[in-house]
Amino acid sequence: MLNLDDQSVYASLDKSGMGSQIRGLPGQCRQAWDKASQFVLPSGYADVGKVVILGMGGSAIGGD
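Above: the chain sequence. Below: its structure as tokens.
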């Protein structure tokens, strides 16, 4: 029987370290927010009315 409360189970199955990446998501979001907050839109884009975001598969999540 697999004990899902045993953290060593996850460590043995998560060979790529995805759990660590997920735990780091809040920090990644803060870093992205900080970078986006510092971005200065070039004046030539002031009249843009629409933006298209494209992606396939997992890459489409950002657009969603």
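The chain has a mean pLDDT of 88.
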